[in-house]
């Protein structure tokens, strides 16, 4: 959350011609210490900005830096999943992105593969099935004021881990769509960080390592705009909370091929779902039949 403390300062500097390292250190998540390692993905992103984007106004420079961090952190980078799956490659010689056209070049960011903009600011990152590896970087939070769509679906070897690796989710408060089904995002159940995304309309956390943990009510409290939830192909240790049943605009709910471990999940969560249009529950075991309240 510290990134937001710097935006007032940043706005006062828009248009200033300054040293990129000095500027970016003011918003860098480690206060600029990450630039001390010349091999860090943040240093690689800084060098890109220095080479191609050193004269940008401040907020533009920050957006270029954030996108470059995503590229350098996930393009051919190793992690614990790739170490097991790609033994035929060395850690320094993994395959890169399937498509990376225009990324980290002199081309404007709005022409980069998978990037859409509203005006000059990034509104959508859509990189499904693009062979992203490594660990997804928290620097995406630097796009929080404008980013509305983040689609990382089917990048199975893309990792996040625990609180530190997933906390950035809570910063992306402008998001309307968040898709990371079939990735290696890892957490003890569904992260409560999702509950901060009050503009969210669609979310896919299916077939991830958000598993063998609870579905906390706080993850869905207040998400009144949600119309679509896919949480299939996972293992959960709690029942579906009432907060999901009470979502007023939920039309699509996918909980197929789910194992509720150690709990007796009934179908009572269907009661009160006034807007539901489609609900897949194939290959998921429930206790009892349809509630009589459904008519």
Summarize this structure as a short list of keywords or feature phrases.
15% strand, alpha/beta, disordered N terminus
What is the gyration radius calculated from CA atoms?
A: 21 Å
The gross shape turns out to be globular
Strand content: 5-15%
Query: What is the count of helical runs?
Result: 7
Q: Helix share of residues?
A: 10-25%
The parts where pLDDT drops under 50 for at least 5 residues are 1-9, 11-16
List the strand order in the largest sheet. Answer: 1-2-3-5-7-9-11-13
Order of helices and strands: HHHHHEEEEHEEEEEEHEEE
Distance between the termini: 47 Å
**Biggest sheet record:** 8 strands, mixed
Could you say which structural class the secondary elements and strand pairing correspond to?
Answer: alpha/beta
Counted beta strands:
13
Determine the mean pLDDT: 93
Task: Write a concise synopsis of the structure shown.
By secondary structure, the protein is an alpha/beta fold. The chain is built from 7 helices and 13 strands.
Describe the structure.
- With 295 residues, the protein is α/β, with parallel strands linked by helices.
- Helix content is 19%, strand content 15%.
- It has helices spanning 7-12, 20-25, 41-52, 58-74, 80-85, 162-166, 242-245; strands at residues 115-118, 121-126, 149-151, 159-161, 177-179, 184-188, 202-204, 209-211, 228-230, 235-236, 252-254, 259-260, 278-280.
- The strands form three sheets. Strands 1-2-3-5-7-9-11-13 form an eight-stranded mixed β-sheet, with no helix packed on it. It has a three-stranded parallel β-sheet with strand order 4-6-8.
- Helix 3 (41-52) packs across helix 4 (58-74).
- The termini are far apart.
- The model is unreliable at 1-9 and 11-16 (pLDDT under 50).
């Amino acid at each position: 959350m510290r990134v937001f403390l710097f935006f007032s300062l940043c706005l006062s500097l828009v248009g200033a011609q300054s040293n990129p390292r000095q500027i970016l250190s003011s918003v860098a998540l480690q206060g600029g210490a990450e630039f001390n390692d010349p091999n860090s993905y943040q240093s690689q992103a800084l060098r890109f900005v220095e080479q191609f984007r050193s004269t940008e106004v401040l907020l533009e420079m920050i957006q270029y830096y954030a996108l470059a961090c995503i590229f350098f952190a996930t393009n051919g980078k190793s992690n614990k999943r790739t170490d097991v799956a790609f033994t035929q490659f060395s850690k320094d010689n993994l395959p890169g992105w399937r498509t990376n056209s225009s990324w980290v070049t002199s081309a404007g960011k709005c022409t980069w593969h998978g990037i859409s903009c509203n005006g000059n600011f990034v509104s959508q990152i859509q990189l499904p099935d693009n062979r992203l590896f490594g660990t997804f970087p928290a620097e995406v939070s630097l796009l929080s004021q404008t980013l509305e769509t983040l689609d990382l679906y089917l990048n199975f070897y893309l990792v996040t881990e625990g609180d530190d690796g997933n906390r950035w989710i809570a910063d992306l408060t402008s998001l309307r769509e968040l898709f990371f089904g079939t990735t290696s995002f890892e957490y003890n159940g569904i992260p409560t960080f999702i509950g901060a995304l009050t503009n969210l309309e669609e979310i896919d956390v299916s077939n991830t390592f958000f598993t063998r943990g609870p579905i906390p009510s706080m993850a869905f409290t207040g998400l009144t705009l949600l119309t679509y939830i896919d949480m299939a192909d996972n293992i959960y240790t709690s029942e579906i909370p009432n907060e999901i049943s009470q979502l007023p605009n939920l039309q699509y709910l996918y909980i197929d091929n789910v194992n509720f471990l150690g709990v007796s999940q009934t179908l009572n969560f269907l009661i009160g779902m006034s807007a539901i249009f489609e609900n897949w529950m194939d290959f998921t075991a429930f206790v009892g039949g349809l509630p009589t309240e459904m008519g």
